[in-house]
Design goal:
It contains 2 helices and 3 strands; from the N terminus they run H-E-E-E-H.
Length: 73
């Protein structure tokens, strides 16, 4: 995700396994899941893998699936 979506990444990781996250950066993704670098309030960094709500089949589906992750699906 682009830098202008940094706060969106925090929302996604908080909703999908890192409720104490204060920062998040998408490291990459494949057809099945996304991988995030996550930082908490103490500055501890970790990696979180979040499965897509549905498999990625084309470029357009990436955007749709990111929106679904943001919405908590």
């Amino acid at each position: 995700m682009r830098d202008d979506h940094a706060s969106d990444g925090v929302v996604i990781v908080r909703r999908h396994g890192a409720p104490g996250a204060t920062a998040a950066l998408m490291l990459g993704f494949d057809a099945i899941e996304t991988t995030w670098s996550v930082t908490d309030a103490d500055g501890v960094e970790g990696v979180l893998t979040v499965p897509w709500p549905a498999p990625i089949t084309d470029r357009a589906s990436v955007r749709r699936q990111v929106v679904e992750l943001f919405d908590g699906r």
